[in-house]
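Quick start: read one record
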Amino acid sequence: MAPSRTGRRRPSRAVLVLLLLASFAVITLDARGGDRSPLAPVRSAAGDLFGPVEDVTASAARPFAAVPEHFRSADRLRRELASVRARNTRLRQQLAGTAVARNRAAELDGLLAGSRSTGHSLVPARVVAMGPAQSFSRTVTIDAGTSSGVHPDMTVLDDDGLVGRVLRADRSTSTVLLLVDRESVVGGRLGSSMEVGFLRGRGDVADDSRLDLELVDPGATARRGDTLVTWGSKDGAPYVAGVPIGRVASVSRTPRQQSTQAAIRPFVDFTSLDLVGVVVDPRTKGDRPVLTAGSTTPARGGR
């Protein structure tokens, strides 16, 4: 046997073979002996000696082994959270859309009822814009114009009452001067006494907006809680007769005044205008349905 570079002798191949054979023999003997194996005490002693060391090592290594699983779980939770948020957003959008559709359906039913009660034909339209707050007029824009049979000086109402009149119109949109505008003057009739007067807006569209009523007869009086409707204009332009306007909120009179002054609260909520109807001739032919008196469904006009 040749000496190594360090000066030590390497074990011979025969010794290695004998060690391998001895190992196989011990393993075979231990396997056949089971619990009665002569090596059982040795195994037990080794377990008692190295078991605590293995437990300590496993406990120390467990946090490091759990790191990859932690990141996998966190990533999975983030994906699930994003999915839940997306579903919640879709549900909120669906609920909002359902609520709007339900409200518009109720408003359309109200317009149909108004058409039947007043005998007027209506072109339905949606409010798509409101005049800027810094302007000196109170107007809204609706999505119906001359192609739908809408022209200036036509009455506009919703399912609550009078909204205003058409100020100008182009092919697809129209501008409506609201009842509460300072330049708006409407003839009204008291429901209890049939006395007539003129209503003027104060330029306020809030929930507490008011109109000023001045009765034509100086000796006539208005009573709180009394209702007013339009008395109408010649040929129905700009206002047709019989459209509800509002209710008397307060009444006042001073010695200098020649007539009774009353504050009228309009029926229409001008801060939530959406679906309105423009009063048109029942023979109107346009590009959208016309709600006609006595019908339960819109009648579509032809071109």
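Residues 14-119 form one domain.
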